[in-house]
Amino acid sequence: MSKPLQGIKVLDLTTFVAAPVCARMLGEMGADVIKVEHPKGDGWREYGINMNAHFNEKINPIFDIYNSGKKMISLNLKTPEGKEIFWKLLEEADVFVTNTRPDALKRLGFSYDDVKDRCPKLIYAIILGLGENGPDAGKPAFDTTAFWTRSGFLRDMSPMNDSYVPISPPSGVGDTITGYNLTAQVCAAIAGRERNGGKGDYVKASLYHTGIFTNGSMEIVTQRPWGRDYPMSREQVGPPGGCFRCKDDEWVFVANGQLSVSLPKMFTMIGRPDLIGDERYTTRESRAAHWKELYDLFVEAYKTKNCAEWVSLAKEVDLPCVRMNHFSDVTTDEQAWANGYLENMTDFTGGNLIMPTVPIEMASVGEIKTLPVPPVGTDTEEVLLSMGYTLEEISALEESGAVYRSK
């Protein structure tokens, strides 16, 4: 069985996370992906090395996770020869993925308006920070600023107390979600092209827009006249659900779900079935009037048993209750391994790394393996030879600074 995107050619001019995620996912679904890097390389290579003292040019799993499986070539797009090669690649491509800012693309001569007529079948897919229009359109943006901060999450999700500080953003998470957004649109555009006489499309996904939609529930309920205020104290955040400290100083998280169904189960689990039907807790209004005593009731109850006991008791009454993991716990989680959500990867030194697998689960795709990504320009020669350049021409291009081959 062939993969769904087999035969699709993707040209990847991406850096950091969001756009590389899109290109990798397209590749894992069967597309051929050529990634073009500046001779100095994608800045995410440096970021990955800086995240851990053990990472280096040969061991860089933070870069591998978003760029595995791509052909890696290096062009200097500020040279006429580099631009000529890039145009040839664009003309052969089905999809172009980038997160280069529109004004920079315009200066290079590769904006959508520059490309659309010369490459009419091309699906031009771009990650934006704050959108194409408005007073902040040209500002630099990362997921930490555009997705997490501007959407309100960092300011409003940290519990309000005497030592309140805004929550810190996780690295690359908003980028990854935005990359998924772009991937879905690109796949739809590929399908749409077949019905539109081979005409390409212009596909955009911005970090800010995706952040707004992702946090949409909070952005709705904080509007007037509803006016729910954030940040909230822990006691205000959805009792009887949320996070609770257990007897062994571990924490559990309990999801409320539909309270008319889940609250009786919660009372049963903590050994207080007598509270089922108590008029203080039967309606939203009555619970709001007694939220502090309801919260305190559960706080004290969870202190009486260890975390594992509560998880077991919750399973008996069919409640979604889980131990609150650390990041470091995930790679030893039996559930993750049982479903193929993690894999072992051998790096270029022969060492073993545990990697999250790409969340694509399609029978036509099958098992996906993450491969370590080689140095900048590793595949430059191979790709240029496939385009008809001779070794002598490639050497001349390298001498002029238009291309770079890894040594």
CATH fold description of the largest domain = Rossmann fold
Low-confidence stretches: none
- CATH architectural designation of the largest domain: 3-Layer(aba) Sandwich
Query: How many domains comprise the coordinates?
Result: 2
Mean pLDDT: 95
* Overall geometry: elongated
Helix content: 40-55%
The fourth-level CATH homologous superfamily of the largest domain is: Crotonobetainyl-coa:carnitine coa-transferase, domain 1
Please count the helical segments: 19
Structural class label: alpha/beta
- Strand arrangement, largest sheet? 6-5-4-1-2-3-12
Kindly report how far apart the N and C termini lie: 38 Å
Rg value: 26 Å
Q: Report the major sheet.
A: 7 strands, mixed
DSSP strand content: 5-15%
Topology, number of strands:
12
- CATH secondary-structure class of the largest domain: Alpha Beta
